[in-house]
Amino acid sequence: NAIKFTPQQGQINIYLERVGNQAQITVSDTGKGILPSFLPYIFDSFRQEDASTTRRYGGLGLGLTIVRQLVESHGGTITADSPGEGLGATFTIHLPLLNTQVAPTKTMQLDQEEPNLTGIRVLTVDDEPDTRILISIMLSKFGAEVMSVASGVEALACIASFQPNILVSDIGMPEMDGYTLVRQIRSLPAEQGGKIPAIALTAYVLDEDRQRALTHGYQRQVNKPFEIDVLVEAIQSLITGEV
Q: Which ranges of 36-98 would DSSP assign to H, the alpha helix?
């Protein structure tokens, strides 16, 4: 966001330092800043400061919500501060440092064994760059081979050559939405990806939205903002046939 909202010739500073038993990461910029009235809502889902920002920069207002979830899942906190519009912004993250003197026992290591997606090729489709990067990093951590594209047209162009084991697609995309994409995929021969299991990763979270996704050809739906363990579980269950 610092890069996204800071104009040319602006300045961005990133600091990492130890504060007590925590790591403190500070990202400050000289960009568009944040109105004081909006600061209390900056991490809320689907919140954008104004309509013009939404049109110019895009996005659903989920990026900072995902950031907060990631930070808090590691036992940390994140805060935002800004002197006002046009005066830049500062985001500060605190993360607890690992106590290296506490070594997990063998039993603990077995209980906390991470899911394994090694050998699974995942094709992800989302028009938001932040979401594509986030999904790629997270799924790659579990061993998956990930190809991320920005549109349904790109997905159709690469599905035969990439031969994914599973599709994870956004629904609300310009030009070709996720419903149209999966419908066109289902019209393909099996050897070209027509039978690929598919997960709708979407902010459309009503029951009728879920049913519509299933009717159009998806097997599962994962709601945005998503938890990575929920997405990984959905991928594993489809791969093993446990729909």
A: 51-57, 63-73
Point out the least confidently predicted range of 33-47, 175-189, 220-234.
33-47
Contact 168, 123 (CB under 8 A): yes
pLDDT in tens, 164-176: 999 999 998 988 9
Nearest to 239 by CA among 162, 158, 144, 113: 144
Q: Pick the closest to residue 31 from 80, 84, 85, 88 (CA basis).
A: 88
Do the beta carbons of residue 117 and residue 142 sit within 8 Å?
Answer: yes
Q: What angle, 0 to 180 degrees and rounded to 10, lies between the N-to-C axes of helices 178-186 and 152-162?
A: 30
Written as six digits, the tokens of 148 are: 């991320």
In the predicted model, is pLDDT for residue 243 greater than 80?
A: no
pLDDT score of 241: 76
What is the distance between the alpha carbons of residues 129 and 75, in angstroms, rounded to a whole number? 26
pLDDT at 207: 87
Find, among 242, 191, 199, the residue nearest to 223 by Cα: 199
Residues whose CB is less than 8 angstroms from the CB of residue 210 and which lie 6 or more positions away in sequence, other chains included: 221
The C-alpha atoms of residue 122 and residue 236 are separated, in whole angstroms, by 11
pTM here is 0.58
Rounded Cα gap, residues 81 and 237, in angstroms: 42
Query: 217 and 240 in contact (C-beta within 8 Å)?
Result: no
pLDDT digits (tens, 9 = 90+) for 32-55: 898 888 888 888 876 555 544 434
Label each residue of 151-209 as H, E or C.
Answer: CHHHHHHHHHHHCCCEEEECCCCCCCCHHHHHHHHHCCCHHHCCCCCEEEEECCCCHHH
